[in-house]
Amino acid sequence: MKRCAISSFSPFLKLTYHPEGITSSCLQFSFFRRCLSQRLSASGSPNTRPFPDYSPKKPTIRDAEFVHQISTAVKLRRFEPLRRILKPYESKFRPDHVIWVLMNIRSDYKLVLDFFDWACLRKDPNLEVRCIVIQLAVASKDLKTAHWLIHEFWAKPNLDVSLSFTHFVERLIYTYKDWGSDPHVFDVFFQVLVEVRLLNEARKLFDKMLNYGLAISIGSCNLYLARLSDSYDGLGVAIRIFSEFPEVGVCWNTSSYNIIIHCLCRLGKIKEAHILLLKMELKGCLPDVISYSTVINGYCHLGELQRVLKLTEEMQIKGLKPNKYTYNSIIFLLCKSGKLVEAETVLREMMNQGIVPDNVIYTTLIDGFCKLGNVAAACKVFDEMQGLKIIPDLLAYTAIICGFCQIGKMMEADKLFHELLDRGLEPDEVTYTALIDGYCKAGEIKKAFSIHNHMVQVGLTPNIVTYTALVDGLCKQGEVDTANELLHEMCRKGLQLNICTYNAIVNGLCKAGNIVQAIKLVEDMKVVGLHPDTITYTTLMDAYCKRGEMVKSHELLREMLDKGLQPTVVTFNVLMNGFCIAGMLEDGERLLKWMLEKGIMPNATTYNTLMKQYCIRNNMRVTTAIYKDMCAQGISPDSNTYNILVRGHSKARNMKEAWFLHREMVDKGFNLSTTAYSALIKGFLKRKKFLEARELFEEMRRRGLVADREIYNSFVDINFEEGHMETTLELCDEAIEWFLVNMPSKENK
The organism sits in which domain of life (predicted)? Predict the structure, then answer.
């Protein structure tokens, strides 16, 4: 007979069936029994029901003699195979004989199992026989076999659950007093019912056992709670059970509280979960790292960083070390809040504690850096991840591909796309759509449609987001007619055009300078029942701002507010850009002040726009003040921020500040743009700092960026004067190649 333990687990707590766990809880039964007796006595209820006596059918004299012969034979020849021993008796053997034989050999547990195996080969024994062997297994502390025997019965196909449950409970109760008298047998039965998801029957068994003065062990009750919490519908039931069971003597432990805290968090009741965490100690249960981590994770998803930090500190004061789950939650929140530097610091702290980050943590960081536009830092994390032999999954690849697509580095995105294919990963709609959108934004429409066709060939269906990217790309290329044809194709395929699709076309028309047609499309959109949203208005405002028509932009803002639409930080950034283009920097500063007063948090782009204009005016005093104010508001500078400041300070010959900012941005994973390199190099050359200038020039060349003629001329002269003729000629050839042959039209500005 196959004997094995069958594991049962919750996805969250990993509760597993362990026979020794039931054995260790034997003292709990007597405790529960006392609690139950006290409760019944207090309420004036009658005594608990006694277990019935076992009174099987009596054998005839002939049957008794036959059973004695079998019993004697198997006892005397116990080391021989039973099949050989019992061969002479098979023809006369009846199912009734099984129980009578078991009565004679019950003291030899191994012989019982062997005999039961032999009986099973002839015919499946009746339920009473099975229950007898289960009782003997539990009495012999062989809970694995007991568990398997019960599970085998309940795993049968086409079982009438209601009728079978009634019969099984009756037989188990009937055989209990004479064959085992070990209450663990009902605990094992309860666990099996939970494992096979017969949760209603498990509850019925729990209630029935109370009538006999027995309570199910706390470990099994926890398994019941965990299984209930597997489904969303069962969360409320688990919480109700948690409040009901103590009334009949169940004393919950830390694991029990952890399950319910998890249930409350899944229901979005984070504050209630936090309150339960605080109540645990009052009930004599010490919270563990899982208790705290679950609540921390809940607050992380609410974005409440201060509560998270306070709980983490409280946990550590109690001597509980954060685990991988805790760190992952905190890193997720920091990435979500745009605090990537802090998130990476937490990662390093985690590794210093000896906890190896997993795929999820690295992917969270990669995605966070990419969304912030810091793809260089994302690549460093991606490389570190692979250096630790952690294989990136599709999510990690898709995140970094999206990052490269957003900054227009399609060669790198395409390389990673083919790398994931080589690793046997199958890209999904998100991966393909990111590439399509990237190629569209880069103006490579043919390549975008090629990716679209490949996507269809592999059996993936382009969705509304995919087609919106294509429509947006066509409009930006001025191919509005082709975009309209694509819209008709979308309709033929049954795709419902949404506000995002129309916004893409409006944006494309505005980028192409066709604002009149964009306005007309917005009116057409209203006719089909779609109303312009904040993005629609912001796009039109941006078009008017870039044309210097601030009055029309303000009119659109008023119309937008009259319709109850809330402007976003992007809307205000559009206005800020309009003011700066028009030279109205004082109005820009007033807008920034008004945003802060109204609780509208600016982002790095808001400040960058102002700083750029003050740098152009060579007013680095105000630029520095704006930068300090930005940092004081808790807004992290991005790549553009640093490049603006480095260019500004270099042109103002504040080389110490420029060099310090350059080192700081490199430490954060950002890179200098071509124009920032040029400004910094020229600043050092004017200050006669040739060593620093040469180092930056070589770094620029290694990165494949092209300096301007003035810088090439300067280094040709320097090398000539120093007598480095080979380097001089090399630079001359390079300059001729770039400026007379290549004449690059695009630079990384």
Answer: Eukaryota
Q: What is the Cβ-side half-sphere exposure of residue 468, based on CA atoms within 13 angstroms?
A: 16
User: Which of 91, 56, 88 is closest to 72 using CA atoms?
Assistant: 88
How many whole angstroms separate alpha carbon 617 and alpha carbon 601?
A: 26
* Residue for token pair 């009438």: 160
What is the DSSP secondary structure assignment for residue 77, as one 8-state letter?
T
How far apart (Å, rounded) are the C-alpha atoms in residues 42 and 51?
A: 23
**311 contacts 333 by C-beta, under 8 angstroms:** no
Phi and psi angles of residue 213, each rounded to the nearest 5 degrees, phi first:
80, 20
CA–CA separation, 447 vs 435, rounded Å?
Answer: 9
Range with the poorest average pLDDT among 132-141, 637-646, 666-675: 666-675
The helix/strand/coil state of 216 is coil
DSSP E strands, 45-138: none
Around Cβ 133, how many Cβ atoms within 10 Å? 27
Longest Cα–Cα distance of the chain, Å, equals 125
Sign of the CA dihedral 724, 725, 728, 734? negative
- The first and second tokens of residue 680, run together, are 């910094």
CA–CA separation, 357 and 351 (whole Å): 7
pTM: 0.64
**Contact status, residue 592 vs residue 606, Cβ threshold 8 Å:** yes
Q: Which helix (H) or strand (E) holds 202?
A: helix 199-211
Whether 74 and 82 have beta carbons less than 8 Å apart is answered as yes
Burial of 119 (0-12, 13-18, 19+ CB in 10 A): buried
What is the rounded average pLDDT of the residues 642-657?
92
Distance CA 445, CA 438 (A): 10
Could you identify the residue written with the tokens 């429409």? 445
Tokens 């195979």, located at residue = 81
- List % helix, strand, coil for the chain (3-state, nearest 5): 70, 0, 30
For residue 12, the SS3 value is coil
Helix 585-597 to helix 569-581 angle, to the nearest 10 degrees?
Answer: 160
Supply the DSSP symbol for 44. T
Q: What is the DSSP letter of 90?
A: G
Region of residue 723 (left: phi > 0; alpha: psi -120 to 50; beta: else): left
Residues 282, 262: Cα–Cα separation, whole Å:
19
Tokens matching residue 260: 């319910």
* Type of residue at 448: A
Q: Quick count: other Cβ atoms within 10 Å of Cβ 43?
A: 7
Residue 171 identity: R
- Tally Cβ neighbours within 10 Å of residue 108: 14
The Cα 277–Cα 650 span in angstroms is 55
Residues 59-78, mean pLDDT to the nearest whole number = 89
Residues in the chain: 749
The answer to whether 403 and 436 are in contact (CB under 8 A) is no
Contacts of 103 (CB under 8 A, 6+ apart): none
CA angle 179, 182, 188 (to 5 degrees): 105
What gap in Å lies between CA 426 and CA 511, rounded to an integer? 35
Handedness of CA 34, 35, 39, 45 (dihedral sign): negative
pLDDT one-digit tens code per residue, 364-415: 999 999 988 889 999 999 999 999 999 999 999 999 999 999 888 999 999 9
CA distance 426 to 443: 26
Dist. CA 200–CA 197, nearest whole Å: 9
Which residue do the tokens 């250096």 mark?
387
**Would you give the DSSP letter of residue 458?**
T
